[in-house]
Amino acid sequence: MAQTAQSLNHARPPEAGHSVKRHTGLMDWITTVDHKKIAILYLWAGGLFFGIGGLEAILIRIQLIKPMNTFLDAQTFNELITMHGTTMIFLGVMPVIFALMNAVIPLQIGARDVAFPFLNALGFWTFLFGGLLLNLSWIMGGAPDAGWTSYTPLSTSTYSATHGVDFYTIGLQIAGLGTLIGGINFLATIITMRAPGMSYMRMPMFAWTTFITSAIILFAFPAITVGLVLLTFDRILGANFFEVGAGGNPVLWQHIFWIFGHPEVYILILPAFGIISEVIPTFARKRLFGYSSMVFATILIAFLGFMVWAHHMFTTGLGPVANALFSVSTMLIAVPTGIKIFNWLFTMWGGQVRFTTPNLFAVGFIPTFTMGGVTGVMLASAPADFQFHDTYFVVAHFHYVIVGGLVLGLFAGLHYWWPKMFGRMLDEGLGKWTFWTFIIGFHMTFFVQHFLGLMGMQRRVFTYLPNQQFDLLNLISTIGAGLMGVGMLFFLTNIFLTSRKPADAADDPWEDGRTLEWTIPSPPPEYNFKQTPLVRGIDAFWKEKTAGHKGMTPSEPVGSIHMPSATILPFLMSVGIFIAGLGFMFSRDTFSSDALSFLFNNYIVTGLGLLITFGSMLMRSLFDDHGWHIEPEELEGR
Amino acid sequence: MVTEQHPQEGSVKHRHRQEGPQRHIVVFIFSVVLTLIAFAAVAAGGVNASFAVILLLVMAVLQVFLQMGFWMHLKDKGHLMPIIFMLGGFFIAGTCIVMALYWVWWD
Amino acid sequence: MTTAHAEAVKGTLPHEPEKATLEGRNKVLAFWLFLGGEAVLFGTLFATFLALRNQTNDGPSANELFHLPLVAAATFLLLVSSLTSVFAIQAMHRNRPALLRSWLLVTVVLGAAFLGLEIYEFSEYVRHEKFGMTTSAFSSAFYTLVGFHGAHVAFGILWISVLIGQLVRKGLTVVTAPKIYVSAMYWHFIDVVWVFIFTVVYLLGKVG
User: Which domains can be identified in chain A, with CATH numbers?
Assistant: First the structure.
């Protein structure tokens, strides 16, 4: 199927004209369906939320800098930790992952776009409006304060009476819808849009991890959607899923949350594995060691990731059988992960390693992530977990895997693919400053937290008493957090200075590019490949280079290229869902103005929002998008 | 089984076998019978509860297999990815069911 | 494959018009993926229902509540509608748009009848049995699971109705065919979910 995929784009319905309405400025960004522009949208949106989450982290650390601090009150602290976790996981790192997937995956598999450009835009806008809805809580009566896991009964209306948790449930449902759409899109893209010759076992590792990640998204996000719906119904419609008094069960929430939540952490880390597997071979000038075992390990991690959720719940009292079962399955994950670690080390072994900024981040990733993995195995032991549970040891563990793993991976990927996305190389000097300040700050912040946890410091508590030996370690931790902030500032400065330089990056700016994205201009033209390339092996571009060829052999003659039309409908659909969510959230409130009460209490606002969404869907269905064509003369003219 | 030959045009290489309605009517009758067995077992009463659970689930799974195989064409060629992802979905759904049955309530 | 497209342009449809274009094939594949996700969605709802099935909070229990004849009628309606949607796809593969439209119409009517029965059932429970969303954990789980399915049926009815309209306006083409095929997949999947609902919720509820 992949072979015929591209050529079919050429056949065009007779009525499709060549004229195309091109938007400029803001309209261009709102209506775009080009995966490269959507990647940039994801990057800016992710960067915005990442910044918000980072500021929240700094505030948390300032509060904890000394015992009995009064910088924040307990309520604000609870809101900050809740929003820090939720924002970072769902709105900070996920969109940056999607940014890299969007920017790179179609290029790596030799496609002109994703399978569903329209859905791609829809996924982005629903994610963005979900994230905005969640963050509106800060200015609309208080943010959610029940922790990022939102455990019941704390998060039920009895104990959390403001709208905070409603913003959490409804905002995450909307953002989650966007993520699910994105996941399905990437699955379909990788299954059907690969260039001729690119079999599954010739795909770059980042394409593989994107594929598996998307599959996990597909199976994990519906579970949390249901969980959030149940919590919403409990809070707004008075249902009893988690109300013990009416027969409900709070443990059910924990199960549903973690059946999603544990796969979610693999959704986060697998793309980082993919990035590292691209960066290390490039800068070692060697092919990835143990490619097939990498693929196998990725699939195994994805499968096991669904089988371990209850290790977050050892202390709920599941009993020895369940605890033993989930202990063993959790420890099993160390095996495929270990395979990956060794494969990266063996890739570098005997290679001509260049320590460019992306490679520094990739090499820094390996020991840092391994430390997080090792504490994971410690936590997997149920009896030990009874001691570690809800202490800073857990906080240290998951920051080692998420920041020391994923964020370092994202930094590696961003520095590596920045020239491909923007046509400009980030400054190497500033990049190295970013790396060193960030990684030193990171270890300062979180390494000491292992010991804080072992000494008994509880997580999620807004302050602590003096003279428990917590003081110095907390001070070190806060200074480290500041240093990570400095690292981020270096990165932002680098982006700003780079954006003022001319866009002159070469097609293959690292000179040792191995995969298809380095065969086309930086940034690529909107059709990506003038001629779809013919793939003759793994690391397709490297293979041609070693055979003495300058570029890829095309698999088709130059012909007219069919492009999808820009459209505002994805944006409108997302606005509609946003309005409907807000309307539903306030449907039981009394307002000072009668007119407002009437509009909200009779579900008129909700109905209006749904009308916009379904109306836009109807428009999309009724009016066919014939797209437009780029003719061969135009291709040659550039 | 009636098979109509689709008229060949141009250079279409593979031949299409046009399925008749009979096969689907057979699946329909099977579905009705399986449903009837399930309803009858419950309506008649007096069936041992644990036996009823097994019987009803077997009837349901058989019916779902038939419908997904024939009506949704999963038995046809070129459905490897759909089968993989449907099995994946059902597997995770089954995991959730196990969770609900064994790990939500305990003494 | 280019042949298929040439035929489409000439005006004669290929045998399986839903798979004639890359867009069509992508659509069918992605819809399968989506159904995999839907399986997890309903799996989680079933899990919730099973966990809370006995938590009646002194309200009506499953055994007191359910009337099998009503459920049997609803089951039969949905099963027949699944068959008629198979016939619709067969009509599409034979390139007989008028017959296709009729079968789709029958499907929609049967689906609407099913939905009517479900609304009647819910309203009976609320009015006569004092069994509402807030009665018990069991009632919340029941309404959410069966209601989610009902909402899927309602969406399917609207969707297929819109497609019938498009068939009238645009005819059967390589653009409309994948939409119809995918809506039929959706409809079958709704029936598959219902098989589990009548088994797990109603019949096993009666068994206790």
Answer: 2-635 (1.20.210.10)
